[in-house]
């Protein structure tokens, strides 16, 4: 049992699961992405004008103010060495403007637009680093990015709300008569359960649409992808089992459930 891999590190999937030659580059791309979670905006600056300029600078490979110098300079170098598209760095800068102040999304389409700028470009950079470059693979990558991102944010729902961030559409809160305060503190009432169940279905659908990518990969790539994929589904199962209670204790897998994930990866069953 001591050899059973841990559950997926939801905030940073595919941070370590690389051949040694590519691992430093992947970590550099993750540092870029992670630094933008708390973007630095100069006091008194116009947020929109600032991010318009920063996105243009990122796409041109020029100095930035929104993240530390070593972070942007290392990311530019990785893009140059590995032939990665800097526009995907710029897209993440564009998305980061919505992380300034309270973050809310009125509709599912608005949330999806954010994901297409935030999670998908980051995943595309990592996928291209791994040699996954055709358009069909890229669609699968986008879906996996959507699923992993939304699951990470669902698992961190109370913590995100403590920072003023909510990644569930407000129109759906109104549909199920759930307030932001209910999601901030719990408990998991019937209406909250119905809302979070719908959101979990959205996550599972995205993961299922991206599953075919694993069939296109060599073993050294397939194994970590399936580990995260099965681990994500196991976390959704665990959330359903506990009636969508995110407030009593953190969402995590027991050692037995981790072992189940390991078996699913090896034998390909659920």
Q: Short summary of the structure?
A:
This protein has 270 residues and is mostly helical. Helices cover 63% and strands 0% of the residues. The chain has helices at residues 23-35, 47-60, 69-82, 87-96, 108-129, 135-155, 157-162, 170-175, 180-185, 190-210, 219-241, 255-267.
Q: If you average the pLDDT, what whole number results?
A: 93
Kindly report how far apart the N and C termini lie. Answer: 20 Å
> Level of helix content?
55-70%
Shape: globular
Structure commentary:
It is globular, with a radius of gyration of 19 Å. Helix 1 runs antiparallel to helix 5 and helix 4 packs antiparallel against helix 5. The protein starts with 22 loop residues before the first helix and ends with a helix. The N terminus is likely disordered. It is mainly alpha-helical and 270 residues long. It contains twelve helices and no strands.
Features:
270 residues; 63% helix; mainly alpha; globular; 12 helices
Secondary structure layout:
Elements: H1 23-35, H2 47-60, H3 69-82, H4 87-96, H5 108-129, H6 135-155, H7 157-162, H8 170-175, H9 180-185, H10 190-210, H11 219-241, H12 255-267
